[in-house]
Amino acid sequence: MSDEEHHFESSDAGASKTYPQQAGNIRKGGHIVIKGRPCKVVEVSTSKTGKHGHAKCHFVAIDIFTAKKLEDIVPSSHNCDVPHVNRIDYQLIDISEDGFVSLLTDSGGTKDDLKLPTDDNLSALMKSGFEEGKDVVVSVMSSMGEEQICAVKEVGGGK
């Protein structure tokens, strides 16, 4: 076989974005992937083993980006995908006319690929703090290739 015959797709199957964990070890407040979405577990109940098989874990979870409620039932001995969830704080530099925000990274560069949050309260807080000249710090949650502003803090007074 020559090198030309090996064509691998470069699309990521999501393997590095999650890690396996036994369903019986996932607790309330933890994270889980349900229907391909990263979720925060809000309720876990475990049924007893039946005549034929495994105890089952019933998960109720909220999508960390869309806030939609999702449910799944998994045998407690099976592995579930758990998403890697990161939270990073950035300082707000600018809000553009089209709703994109410019954020200052730790390395001194800018991050310009995020929009204002869909949550009206967060958006209003960001805009008012920015217009008043306050230092606004936003928390960006990222998981499974998605990013979203999830919290806003005002630091210090106006200019």
From TrEMBL:
Gene3D superfamilies: 2.30.30.30, Nucleic acid-binding proteins
Residue numbers spanned by region Disordered: 1-23
Domain Translation initiation factor 5A C-terminal: 84-153
Keyword annotations of the record: Hypusine, Initiation factor, Protein biosynthesis
Pfam families with a match to the protein in the record: eIF-5a, IF5A-like_N
A molecular-function term among this protein's GO annotations: translation elongation factor activity
Stated name of the protein: Eukaryotic translation initiation factor 5A
InterPro entries in the record: IF5A-like (IPR001884), IF5A-like_N (IPR048670), IF5A_C (IPR020189), NA-bd_OB-fold (IPR012340), Rib_uL2_dom2 (IPR014722), Trans_elong_IF5A_hypusine_site (IPR019769), Translation_prot_SH3-like_sf (IPR008991)
Post-translational modification summary for this protein: eIF-5A seems to be the only eukaryotic protein to have a hypusine residue which is a post-translational modification of a lysine by the addition of a butylamino group.
Function (record text): Translation factor that promotes translation elongation and termination, particularly upon ribosome stalling at specific amino acid sequence contexts. Binds between the exit (E) and peptidyl (P) site of the ribosome and promotes rescue of stalled ribosome: specifically required for efficient translation of polyproline-containing peptides as well as other motifs that stall the ribosome. Acts as ribosome quality control (RQC) cofactor by joining the RQC complex to facilitate peptidyl transfer during CAT tailing step.
SUPFAM superfamilies: Nucleic acid-binding proteins (SSF50249), Translation proteins SH3-like domain (SSF50104)
Annotated GO biological process: positive regulation of translational elongation; positive regulation of translational termination
Feature: compositional bias, Basic and acidic residues: 1-10
Family to which this protein belongs: Belongs to the eIF-5A family.
Keyword set includes Cytoplasm: no
PROSITE patterns assigned to the protein according to its UniProt record, in alphabetical order: IF5A_HYPUSINE (PS00302)
